[in-house]
Amino acid sequence: MIDEKELAIHPIVAESVQHNSKVISQLRNLSASVFGVAAGVLGLESYPGFLFYLLGTLLISLLTLVFLAEANPKKFFVASVDIWTSDVFSGLSSFVLTWTLFFGLVRA
Fold first, then answer.
1. Does this model's pTM top 0.85?
2. Of 8, 48, 99, 105, which has the highest C-beta tally within 10 A?
């Protein structure tokens, strides 16, 4: 956890952390739909499709860490694991929806 001296030097602004979490959530939801389209077009079924989603989500987390958080997530989030774990499964329903839609369209 963050100690008192660190908070005095670099204070955490609640509005900024809330905004950053909202941006991560929107990015995950949008990318979940894109991954659903890709999984449907590729014809992935069952476990390979869900594995595709998890690997895509990890890729998005890595890209977010490198490009948006400048490889320093503690600067933008309360805990550094938030960039990896927050809202990981929030986009799952949109992934499944677009996955099944495009799977059906391509295979019909």
1. no
2. 99
Indicate left, alpha or beta for 87 from its phi (over 0: left) and psi (-120 to 50: alpha). Answer: left
Question: What's the CA gap between 34 and 38, in Å, rounded?
Answer: 6
Q: Where are the beta strands (DSSP E) in the chain?
A: none
User: What percent of the residues of the chain are helix, what percent strand, and what percent coil, each to the nearest 5?
Assistant: 75, 0, 25
pLDDT in tens, 23-64: 888 988 999 999 999 999 999 999 999 999 999 999 998 888
| Angle, in degrees to the nearest 10, between helices 46-63 and 14-42 | 140
Helix (H) or strand (E) holding 60: helix 46-63
DSSP state of 13: P
Looking at the chain, the whole-number percentage of residues with pLDDT higher than 70 is 89
